[in-house]
Amino acid sequence: MSIWSRITDALAALASGEGLSVVLDRLRTPPERSVAFTIAVIALGAKMAKADGQVTRDEVAAFRQIFAIPPGEEANAARVFNLARQDVAGFDAYARKIKRMFRDDDQILADLAEGLFHIAVADGHYHPDEDAFLSEVARIFGLSDRCFRALRARFVGDAPRDPYDVLGVGHDAPLTEIRSAWKRAVRDCHPDRMVARGVPEEAVKLAERRLIDINRAWEEISAKQAA
Q: Most distant CA pair in the chain: distance in Å?
């Protein structure tokens, strides 16, 4: 059964008049965490699309890039998106529910934030309201300022980039510690690890840009310390 068929089943379980946030409450445990992850990215993405006042074709296409939505499942993806836009619950309510759902794994929350950044810049612009939205979501998720800066720099071309932020280490950390952080970050990008923590197979491609950034950061730091 595809992720989209499982999402359809989850939505079909809603009673009349219940909000989409109810779905998230029902998807707290494996194997449905991957369904929750997908719904969370689309739902928060829909809320974020309202932050800059418009939903562009590029933003919709970004969902397809992340989740490889097959033609027969487009209606199901659109249903989640539209439910989120219409739901009276604010994005902060969604973000808090998602934080509680994934409270045992900060990395999957970072995965989710990465998907939102991918969507935010899909139209070629990064709106100040999108930055405020993502900053608040990251705060609710409990992501560090360093993590948020690294994510923003990965996707926003003119944002300041610090390789130490990318690896989550201090500027005064010894090279052995930095090397360990680099290796750990590379392991966290492995598809098997991502699927194990609840990222659907359709979204594993999120790690491609991250891995490039991680290796680049290690090369920059190691070269600097060797000089």
A: 65
What is the residue type of 40?
A
Determine contact, residues 118/156, Cβ cutoff 8 Å.
no
Cα 161 from chain centroid (whole Å): 19
For residue 161, the model assigns a pLDDT of 92
Measured in whole angstroms, how far is the alpha carbon of residue 112 from the centre of its chain? 2
Please tell me whether the overall predicted TM-score, pTM, comes out greater than 0.70 for this model.
Answer: yes
pLDDT tens string 146-163: 999 999 999 998 899 999
Burial code (b: 16+ CB inside 10 Å, e: under 16) for 131-162 equals bebbeebbebbebeebbbbbbbbbbbeeeebe
